[in-house]
């Protein structure tokens, strides 16, 4: 009986013991076990996951606005001076980022963005239509493919990216994640006059050499019929169709310098012809008699220049931007949109200005940097202030004037980082208008995250 038990134990020990493979076999190093070899060689799934990245960012906001939300508050300001405040909950952006490195310099990346908490149409009141209620596909909750591109990297100084890409014109478009600005919502000036986040289909050439980074892009152009008084060219990069009309093309460029420790300075620009970039393409060219069509000479040239910087050192973060835009033929485009397009056409009928401007600066100091415990725990607490001036409608001399489009805004608040990937924001802000318009104070609270999970 004892001998039988001993034999069973001996067999089990032999079966469970690691097998030593001789070095001469060529399958392992001298004295290495199969188990050790398996641990060192990742599985096929592990190899795939090593090349795969997933991440994203998101924001949730509550705001209380202490001013009227009536559609006539600018045209009849005296009537709505004492209207009650109103509150809003919002999910401005929730983004899922997916990327895969195929190897040999080839990579794909995509971003799917959920704006304002969902997808589908939303109802809003049109300021220019006597408060008429309209259903808007482009507004409210929506899902957008913000980025989708394939990239070939030849060297750090030379990369080619093709597909749907971010247009890095201005500070906010180049650095639009919620941990890249102090305010609860994206900085108001650039987010008013430019598409934000601005993304188009095209091709990009970019790289970094030493303290310099550059990017040059060839893109689909804007559509002047979607420009507006309240948002200048912002709506021009959208499309009501299942495709983006590209009768006209655009170029964009950006260059950043990092020579000074903690400081980045960027210069960016954009140029396109925006007229005749819609469907049907019937306002340009010659008629059957060989004569130029009535609006053939109107080009709608859009030129934008932007200077921005970020300083992050000595427990300070300071950011600033200056954006200036020009649109040729603004008066003619405004008249054509309002009077020469079909009433049921999906265009914006408001006038559009010849120029637009956005100036902004914010500065914040990390007070937790002075407390040993929070500094060691990598917590941060910024007290910040911000100033914005922007005007979405600077008209030509023969166009109607709307003084309420020029606004100053002051913001003060806090950013608390319990961990580097999460921020809790709170702020008080106030827009200032010329007389007789009413100033617009508000209080906002938000929480946001940004990070990669693999």
UniProtKB/TrEMBL annotation:
Keywords attached to this entry: Signal
InterPro entries per the UniProt record, alphabetical: Porin_dom_sf
Name the record gives this protein: Porin
Signal sequence segment: 1-22
